[in-house]
Amino acid sequence: MKITVKIKRQNSPDSAPFYQTIHRECDKETSVATLIREINAENISDIEGKPVEEISWECSCLQKKCGACAMRINGIPRLACDTKIAELKSKSVTLEPLKKFPVVRDLIVDRSVMRKNLLAIHNWLESEASQSEKNVDLAYDASRCIQCGCCLEVCPNFTAGESFFGAAAFVPASRILSQLPKGKKYDLVKEYGKHIYSGCGKSLSCHNICPVGIDIEHKLSNSNAVAVWKRFFK
Amino acid sequence: MKINIIGAGLAGLSAALTLAENGIKSNLISVQQSERAQSVMAEGGINACLNTMGENDKIEYHYEDTLRGGVYLADPDAVRGLCEAAPGIVKKFASLGVPFEQNENGIIQRNFGGQKKKRTAYVKSSTGKMLMTALIDEVRKYEARGMVTRYPNHSLVRLIVKENRCFGAVVQNTYTKEILSLNGAVILATGGLNGLFEGMTTGTTQNTSDAAAMLFSQGVALSNLEMIQYHPTTIGIQGKRLLISEAARGEGGRLYILRSGKPWYFMEEKYPELKNLMPRDVVSAEMVTVSSLPECDDQVYLDMTGIEKSVWKTRLSDLREQCIHYISLDPAKKPIPVSPGIHYFMGGVWVDKNHRTSVRNLYAAGECACQYHGANRLGGNSLLGAVYGGQAAAKTVMNESKENDIKADRAEENTADVSPAFARKICEILYRSLPIVRNESDMNNALSELKALKNTAENQAEMNRANLALAVVQSAIERRETRGAHKRTDYPERDDDNFKKQTVARLQNGKVEITFKEIGEDLS
Q1: pLDDT class of A232 with cuts at 50, 70, 90
Q2: How many domains does chain A have?
Q3: Which of A165, B175, B203, B517 has its CA 20 to 30 A from that of B313?
Q4: Which residues, in sequence order, are bridge partners of residue B486?
Q5: Rounded to a whole number, what is the distance in Å from the CA of B358 to chain A's nearest CA?
Q6: Residue B403's pLDDT is what?
Q7: A93 and A178 fall within a common domain
Q8: Would the pLDDT of A30 be above 90?
Q9: Domain final residue pick, A109, A142, A157
Q10: Which pLDDT score is estimated for B402?
């Protein structure tokens, strides 16, 4: 099929962004990741006849296990490796960097705020994990988080650098909270209230966007139960 | 003292944690953050003799299986250390919150290839991801205490080497392009050589092989490069090979081919003891053999339709979802077509049993290093080797490294990358000349093509990659025998007299030189 690919380009954090448009023939089963790789492997020109310089983007596993290739595809944050052209139901494909993070170049954004936030809430075990049949499924599901940032992109309450840290923090935190032995005071519990519970508007827009299908609402309710209501997880 | 660790996958994190637990600071340098490392893709499990399955397993058996699986090319002393440490490593991960499947006897273990006992601990088919999440969180604790300094989005430009001693690393911030010189000993944990076979492996695009190629150009010795593992059950998807975990066969999956129109379970007939769970090199070679028989079809299938519902639910749900998603086939209902694909590099940077490389003050661990797996790696030993290797390298560094303050020479750093076209040409030549079963004339042709290609290199990175590719092919030519993953039509027998030795590749005056050395001996 013939498609029109519109890519938001930006040479550096300080330079002005612009869109570059390419006409292209491709199979409908082609993933956006393959599309970008093919464009980068060829010397092609855009519709104005200008050369298309190599598109900067991040990519690693190509099978939705690493979260590197998250970007806005036709306005929706998702993984390029997990998005087929056919799914877009459009002959026009617009690729833009995630908006909630500072642009580095083209489709690359600096997502280091997610790592800093996990550091800030003390997201680690302070003593040996307490594991039982009750928390094993939760630990598995929460541990699947790929830190792609799609959940933050759609969150009405998250802004990078501000005090609410969003699902990219509370999903990993839910594993730790479920595994902390009872009876002690933990920094994570305190920070959770400050950086997650008090800022979450419960829109749950994060719930359906997760590329790996983590049951985010379940993680939120369990973490709230432990950290805020001091109940054992459900 | 601060140690520089290049790579933040399982081996790099393991080294950083070991150093931090012993009060030593490290810089953890990686092109992308840990969540993007190839370690997250490891599926089936991690081996350790926990003896929870009532099979009277012993550490000695793990040791024997690993050496035999590697066709006696691995260093026995190193393998002994690995197997002895394994139970402690798995228990530590459980204490860090890895949700291994458990029952009243403890952690459940599954069958895996080349092992006579159930010895592989797992979390469904996402074991690597689970270990990584736990380790990332644990290392974060030490990051908060200032023991680990992360340098995400930084790539290795070169090592600072003088008189065969490493004084640090020059790295570049890939976002700002800023160049940084970091002093101190270096532990390499840069992963496998996937980039040599771009698009043809089960691994990530991030493991470009550029780090190994650069090290080679700086005089670091590489070893056993010809030992490239073809995993029996992979499927081509866009841009790569999709791995169908060995767990599929560990839980009862059966390989067959249609012979005169009827399913032939060739592994079960030929190998009645381990059947479908023979070591990977054996299974892959058998798949090539049977699919070339005139009475057989071309395609081998993996039949998982006999696996019980409860196993699909508790142990293989992620594997099933992956098949449905990527190949639109439900493996619980229909056999799936599989073929061998490049999965792991047993060879890499030469290290001794303490993870020292040929350059003093430089260490290597994980898939980038040539350790533990000999001529063929057993499933479940890669996660173990990465974690244990990281620990072992860290312990050696602690004993040997001294503060030093030699700065990098001021130089115009060469940071141009290998072009996609050059990478593709290398891949085409290597993939054609290094199939599962090889022969000298194809490899000689590849040498000529690579030498011609090397003359077209437009930057240092391309020159380095061409030299690395030459080293792989020359290593494969010089090993004139069949052993493990290295199978040859012209030398079909194992030759212990001449080749129970490690291949060593070095770059001398711009030329690749191959020698052989006794296993366990130091490099001269």
Answers
A1: low
A2: 2
A3: B203
A4: B483
A5: 30
A6: 63
A7: no
A8: yes
A9: A109
A10: 73
Q: How far is B226 from chain A (nearest CA, A)?
A: 24
The nearest CA of chain B is from the CA of A64 a distance in Å of: 10
Per-residue pLDDT for A231 more than 90? no
Q: Looking at the structure, do residues A125 and A216 belong to the same domain, yes or no?
A: yes
User: Does residue A15 share a domain with residue A100?
Assistant: yes
Q: Are residues A83 and A137 in the same domain?
A: no
The pLDDT of residue A121 is above 90? yes
B106 part of contact set with chain A, CB < 8 Å: no
Question: Which range marks the domain in which residue A126 is found?
Answer: 112-227
CB nearest to B97's CB, from A33, A60, A131: A131
Among A15, A62, A103, the residue to mutate for chain B (most B Cβ within 10 A)? A62
How much is the ipTM here? 0.97
Cα dist from B490 to B73, B474, B494, whole Å? 21, 16, 12
Question: Within an 8 Å CB–CB cutoff, is residue B146 touching chain A?
Answer: no
Residue A230: predicted pLDDT: 78
What's the confidence (pLDDT) of residue B518?
97
Domain boundaries, chain B: 234-341
CB contact under 8 A, A124 and B141: yes
> Is it true that domain B234-341 has CATH number 3.90.79.10?
no
Handedness of CA B194, B196, B201, B204 (dihedral sign): positive
For chain A, helix (H) and strand (E) counts, in that order, are 7, 7
Domain harbouring A211, CATH code: 1.10.1060.10
Closest chain A residue to B203 measured between Cα atoms?
Answer: A61
Q: Is B141 touching A (CB cutoff 8 A)? A: yes
Residue A232 is assigned to a structural domain of this protein: no
To test the contact with chain B by mutation, choose from A52, A54, A61 the residue with the greatest count of B C-beta atoms within 10 A, namely: A61
* The predicted structure's pLDDT at residue A234: 42
The verdict on whether B280 is a catalytic residue reads yes
On whether any CB of chain A is under 8 Å from the CB of B124, the answer is: yes
Q: Do residue B138 and residue A104 have CB atoms under 8 angstroms apart?
A: no
Q: Pick from A109, A129, A149: which residue ends a domain?
A: A109
- Are the C-beta atoms of B210 and B172 separated by less than 8 Å? no
Distance between CA A121 and CA A175 in Å, rounded? 13
DSSP reduced 3-state for B334: coil
Do B50 and B87 contact (CB within 8 A), yes or no? Answer: yes
Which segments of chain B have a pLDDT < 50? none
Give the pLDDT band of residue A14 (cuts 50, 70, 90): very high
